[in-house]
Amino acid sequence: MANYNVQITNGQGSESMKSGNYSVAVSATGYEATTLSPTTYTAGVSAGSGSFTVSANGVLTLIFNETGAEGGTPITSGSVVMTDSTGATEYGSAITIDASGQAVFNNVPYDANSPYVLYFVQKETDAGHNPYSGVITVNMASASQTEYVLNSPIAAQTFTLTDANYAGLPVASATLSFTGE
Amino acid sequence: MKVRLDLTVSNNALPALIIIRGFSGRLVLYKRLNGGKNSLCFSARERNLIITVRPFNACYPEKSYFIKFGCKICYRLRLDFIFTPKVVVSEQRFCLYDEFYRFPISSAVLEFEN
Questions:
Q1: Is residue A92 in a domain?
Q2: A150, A149, A151, A147: which is closest to A61 by C-alpha?
Q3: In the predicted model, is pLDDT for residue A95 greater than 90?
Q4: Taking CB atoms and an 8 Å limit, are A48 and B90 in contact across chains?
Q5: Which of A52, A53, A93, B88 is the most buried if burial means most Cβ atoms within 10 Å?
Q6: What is the distance in angstroms between the Cα of B59 and the nearest Cα belonging to chain A?
Q7: Domain of A5, in residue numbers
Q8: For an interface test with A, which of B94, B97, B106, B107 has the most A Cβ atoms less than 10 Å from its Cβ?
Q9: CA distance B12 to chain A (A)
Q10: Interface of B with A in 31-50 (CB under 8 A)
Q11: Which tens digit of pLDDT belongs to each residue from B67-76?
Q12: pLDDT at A19
């Protein structure tokens, strides 16, 4: 009989194991141990590998509004996705922001003693707001948590167009086209 | 020389091959064994034989007997080949992801019980 405890760091770990059939259990902060899948592993005589998944049952509600705090005017549409700390790698599918500015992430990990840190990037907002430009960091410490994210209203911009040779002479009619970079 | 060989092979090492050669290397018998109890008859010119049982499962290393016969015409021989698995340790690599979002779990312990 041989038992092994394999430390997993950033999703990966390894161990030299005797060949045989093993039952597998997990201990992971913020996760439900009973959700591990699969729960068996067969180590052969040669090098091998196994991939496991585990899930949590926390619920995170992100509310996007004009103040970034409770009570602000919410945006009416958009999307947001979970990412790594840099925002470069996306995890899972983007979640739609509804008409009340809410995006709900189910099955997220949490821990009261050592809050689980999650990262998000807002991909879209509605026509009247600027999306949050950075990475949104959330410390999940409870099973149900609500966080607010600022989406500032787009600001009115005033332009003048005058004749280059006759100072102050307004151009009677023209269209200025602005292309985003 | 005629030989009748009663051969017992432990069941955990089956199926296996039996290979009988003379000391010169000349092949006398080559046969697959599927059962634990076997009775084999063969003729050999050489009086010195190497009788080897090689399990298909690599966990069990092959075993051999070196037999030196006398000058009789017929022999009856009984051999037992008892195999115990050799302990093989190999590197196993594991990944652990969040089931719903597929991100790597930052820290966890996977517990394996045999």
A1: yes
A2: A147
A3: yes
A4: yes
A5: A52
A6: 8
A7: 1-55
A8: B94
A9: 14
A10: none
A11: 998 888 999 9
A12: 86
CB contacts of A40 in chain B (<8 Å) are: none
Co-location of A77 and A48 in the same domain: no
pTM above 0.80, yes or no: no
Give me the CATH number covering residue A82.
2.60.40.10
Domain identity same for A135 and A84: yes
Residues of B in contact with A22 (CB under 8 A): 112-114
Scan for tokens 């017929």, then name that residue.
B74
Is residue A50 situated within a structural domain? Answer: yes
Residue B103 contacts A where some CB pair is shorter than 8 Å: yes
Domain match, A76 and A144 both: yes
Domain count, chain A: 2
Residues A22, A94, single domain; the answer is no
ipTM: 0.82
The reply to whether A89 and A8 lie within a common domain is no
- The answer for residues whose C-beta is within 8 angstroms of residue A95's C-beta and 6 or more apart is A79, A80, A81, A103, A104, A105
